[in-house]
Each structure stands twice: as structure tokens, then as C-alpha cells.
Amino acid sequence: MLLKLSLAGIKGRLRDYIVLFSGLVMASAIFYMFESLATNEVFLQQNSMVSSVVFIFHLGTVLLSIITFVYILYANSFLMTMRQKDYGMFMMLGAKGRKIAQLIFVETFVVGVAATIVGILIGLGLTTIVEKLLTKQLEIAITHFSAVNSKAIVITLIFFAIIFLLAAIVNAVMIVKKPVLSILKASETPAPAKRKKITLFLEAIFGIALLAMGYVMMTLVTKLAIAALVIALITIVAGTYFVFHAVLIFILNLLKQTDSLALKGLNNFTFSQLSFRIQDYTRILSLVAMLFALALGAITVGLGFRNEIPKMTNQTTAYDLILNDSQKIVADKIEALKPTLNATYQQKETDTTVYYDKTEFDRTPLQNKEFVDNHSTKTVRYSGEELAKDVTKQDALRQLELPEQKTKEHQLVSPEAFAAVQGKASTLQVVQVKDFMTEKEALQKLAAQNYKNNPALEQEGGFTQKATIYEVFNSLFSGFEFMGFFLGIAFLTMLASCLMFKILSGAKSDVRRYTMLEKIGTRRQLLTASIRKEIGVLFLVPGLLGVAHVLFGLQMFTTLLSEPYSNIWVPFLIFFVLYFVYYLLTIWIYTGIVMKREA
């Protein structure tokens, strides 16, 4: 009988249970997605330039475990707010505490384990989809990655089974030990104690000062190194806490005292609701803001590394294609590239010397890249006369030649002297195109054909071709790019879910307020507008603060990235679209809980 009543109660709140179950499924799916990376040490080592990346991902596992634990706490709190009144009614009707405890235990544990199993299956699919999207759409080159990871499956199952087992025990014990009346009146939340205005003002100033100090330290990382990082970490974390604990509440108090705003519609009610909530939500909002910044930073830096690949490739060599003995390559293929530069230098080669006609270099000077600083290069041009006089400048020419030619003496002579040389004739052809990335595939094919015609080049390593250099940089940096996108999206989904369930777990206590407003004649349109504003602030403020953290935090990567802010709108757009979806979902569920549905 008790089981039937429980099932009837679940059926009556089926929509809320579907949301809860889907949230738990996403939590386990995201956890599995992360673990499939974190436990694949071969993948991490093969696709990263940083030797400590495996250790970093182990730290990431700890961080994700903490976030997941917090998420499950809020999801579990949402479950209990939905069901505890029912349990109280069962106890009033004579149900034994032991039976209620068993019912709660089974309900919590079974829902949790079922969600974990479904989540792992969805995680396998999501991991495969994300991997395919990132490798194909972003042209990322990764190796040793597989969506199916038995070690990650076992870790996910054990982790969530332990969490839900603990949650089930805690839920059962708490409900049985509580008096029936306290269970029935659990939604009556006491108002937080009022704080003195001067204390609030001083805390607000202190919080802003801490954030300012942290942001300044981020700009000084290149000078102060680890000291700046430590100071920035402490001050920004503390400053973030005080933004929600004092700054935001101080602003809300000012708004409530502004009659032109407070007396318009339900604004005064909305401001009061926010003041009440934010004092209770300080910790979770601070956590969301900080981890929002970490997640957004991960995807932004990942995209930054992608932008560096063509830039670093262009800085390495002046020519888009180099052809040795180019007569073996069909000229039509080169013309199809519509080159902006297509120069051929005649060569004659003896046992000890390579000869060039220096007038050809006078007509089309040899180009070479020289570094100005860590992030920029300049193109220098050498005429035939300069190459003939300066042996060191000939090194730029040697880089383009076949291995057997590089070790020989080089002579740049007049056309008459060149014609008189008796030796093996060949050519060196250099090509530049308008846009390397647009013509990349055709250039790669021509470079491969040049390697095939000259096997010694490939044996040497083949780093003279821009297409080959691009592939090398792409393989080095795309591992970071993949991890950044993968982890950023996963963390954002988890954090937004945490905030959603935190808001929903307190929805039951708000039912009476909205019911009273509706009974005294407040229009539903005003009530729903108030809900949108209230939840909008709870989502928007930590998001904006997280964005500010990222904008200043990118200063730390100026030594690694030439333009850390390039195309920054892309990750920001991805994040805010996902964030907005969670915002709309939270409004929909919250409105359904606190307001009676119209007949």
C-alpha cells in the first residue's frame, strides 16, 4: 500500500521527476566524458606538449568530483523538497518510520543508479559525437582516443554508487529522526538576519578592492611569476565571495530605496526576493562564478591555441611551397593555385659545388623569415649580389635545397659563368599563394609529390614545406584545443545544472508568497515577469563575473598566445547559448512549482 502511495505521488510530480532524472543522467554522462579523457594517459601524453598534463587531469578529476558531489547534493535537496511532505503525510496516517526509511532509501538509490547507467550510455554517445565534431569540423589531429573506456565506466559507476548510497542513508535517517510537524512545515524558511548598513558598505568596498588587486596581479604574471598567481587566486576567490555577500546586496538595497524603480510593478517584491536569496546562495553563486570562469577560460584558451597554428606556421617559412626538380611536377597544378609568386632558380651541381645564376635572385630576391620577438617575425629579402658576398645569408638558401646539396659550397655567378659550368642541371622553385589555409589541401598534395620525387627530403624530416610545418603544429596544439572545448562544455553544463537545482530546491518555500500575491489580485503576467527577473539576475551575475575573470585572466597567456583575445566571441557565444537554455528551463520548472496552473 505504501509503495502504491509513493508511486502515485511520483506520478503526480512526473514532470519534476523527469527533470531530476535527466539532470542526474547528464551529471553521470559528463563525469564519464571527463574520465574517458582523464584515465587515458596514453592519449594525454601523445596529444600534449606539457609533460605534466596527466597530473593536471588527475587534479581535474578531483575538481569535477567535488562539483559533481555539490551537484548531487542540490539535486537530492530538490528530490527531498518534492517528497518530504508526502512522507510526513504517510507518517501521520500511521506508517512506521522503518518502512518510510526503507522507501526513501530504495527510491533515492534506485533513481540514482538507474540515472548513472543511462548516463554512462549517453556519455558514450556524447563522447563519440564530440570527438567526431572536434576532429572533423575543427580539423584537430588526435591519436589514441576511444569513446569506450572500461576504466572510466568502472570509476563512474563506483563514484555515483557511493554518492547515492550515502544520499539514500542520509535521507532516510533525516526523515525518520525529524518530528512529523517539522517535516510538514519544512518549507517555512526563516528570514535571514538583517545586517548593518555600514558593515555591508565596508564589505562591498573590501570585495571590490580584492577583485581589483587580483585583476592587477593577472597582468603582472610575466613579471612576478608564481607570486602573482598565488595572490590573484586568493584575492579573486575572496573578492568573488564578497561580490555576492555584500556588493550585490548593497546594490539591491539601494534599488529598493529608489522609489521610481521599487514602486514600479512588482520590482520591490523582486528586489526583496533577490536580497533574501543571495544571502542564502552566496557560496553556490561564488562557486558558479569561479568555475564558470575556469570553464570559459578552458575553451577560450583552447580556441586561442587553434588560432596560433596558422600564425606560427607563417612565421616559420616565407614560402607556401618549395619544389626541388620541379619539372617532375605538372605546371598546370601550380598554376591552378593562382600563385602571387612563382619563381624558379636554375641550379648546376658538381661533386663539390652548387652554382646559381645570381641575376635570377636580383630579379626575384630570396625571402627569409627572421624573428623580431616571441610572437612576430619579419620577411627579409636577399639579392643575388648579397648572397654571393655573404656566406651566412646563403643558409636561407640551403634550407630550401636537397640534403646532398646543403653540404656543398655555393657559388652565385654571372649568366655567362653559369652557362659555362659543366654539371647536373636542376631547378629550385618557390611558390607563394594569396591564402595558405584556403589552398592548404592542394599544397599538401604537391608537397607530398615533392617528397615522393625526392625521398631524401622525407628521410631528413621534411620541415621545409609549410604544409608539413602546419601538420606538426596542428598535432602539437590540437590536443590542448580538444581538451579545452571538451572540458569547457562539460563543466558549463554541470555548473548550470548546479545553479538550476539550487534554485529549484527552494521553490517549495516560495509557493505561499506567490499564492498570496495571486489571491490579492496580482496579474499572472506580473508574477511571471518577476520570476524571470529574479532568476535572470541569479544566472546573469555569476556569468558576467566569470566573464570578467576570463577577460583579465587571459593576460596570463600572453607569453603563449600572440592574440589571446582573437575571436573570443566564439566561446562566449557557445557558453551563453547553453547558459540561456538552462535559464529558460529553470524558469519553466520554477513557474510550474510556485504558481498554480491555469485551468
From TrEMBL:
Zinc-finger found in the keyword field: no
Record's subcellular location: Cell membrane
Every ABC3 transporter permease C-terminal domain range: 62-179
Membrane topology reported for the UniProt record: Multi-pass membrane protein
Gene Ontology annotations of biological process type: transmembrane transport
InterPro entries on file: ABC-4_Integral_Memb_Prot, ABC3_permease_C, ABC_permease_BceB-typ
Gene Ontology cellular-component annotations: plasma membrane
Residue stretches spanning the membrane: 14-34, 54-79, 100-126, 152-177, 198-218, 224-255, 284-305, 482-504, 535-556, 568-590
Keywords of this entry: Cell membrane, Membrane, Transmembrane, Transmembrane helix, Transport
Family: Belongs to the ABC-4 integral membrane protein family.
Protein name per Swiss-Prot or TrEMBL: Peptide ABC transporter permease/transmembrane protein
Species annotation: Enterococcus devriesei
